[in-house]
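QA checklist item 7 of 12: single-chain prediction sanity check.
[x] sequence parsed
[x] length recorded as 235
[x] structure emitted
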Amino acid sequence: MLVENKLEVFTFLPIVESLKQNPGFFCIISDGNRFRENDRIFRIILLVTIVLSTCLIIFVIYINKTQKKLEQLSIYDSLTQLYSRYYIISRIQIENERFLRYNKPYSVVMFDIDHFKKVNDTYGHLVGDMVLRELGSIIRKNIRKIDSAGRYGGEEFLIVLPETKKEQAFIVAEKLRNAVNKNSFPKAGKITISGGVAEVTDDTKSYEDIIRSADKNLYIAKQSGRDKVVVLEKA
């Protein structure tokens, strides 16, 4: 009911006597405007809650996506799409632990691109990046699903071959070398790679030993003419 331009709410409560008659009523008058104000405040609070909840959900989704991107950056090399240096070393550590616990063999192949500096100097770093990207694709196509390949640094790469003896690892490395030889790289044309193979042995004290051994064999391949795979040094 409007009383002097104000909304008033009247509530009537009957007065009941023992004879069940209603001799009168209690009249309770409430300010309707106060109800409307409370309703408005409630609606504002509800709206703010919905907005804040939505913002929180969006923020959580953003954080999750950002975290996944950071994880991918730490696992994969952005140029070659192979594993990063950090991650490929962690794979070697895992295989080394399996060898120490269960005597499971594994081998490592380290190789790099022959005369890669000349490629960069002659054609520029953009072409050099194209060569690295193409090489990453060739590596992925020529290893097993259980193998892991990563960019160790610059033009150097590491392949980890679980439960693989050095003779088998040599075959894998030669297959990869031949695949690179047959490929024509964009603008750079033909390139070659050199590799060193190492197998874990009882003398291997840490994962660093097998990397060092593969690196020594790679050095021998380089010194003896390049475009070859060497397996001589023991880990």
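[x] summary fact logged: The helical segments are 32-75, 85-102, 116-123, 125-141, 166-182, 207-223.
[ ] second reviewer sign-off
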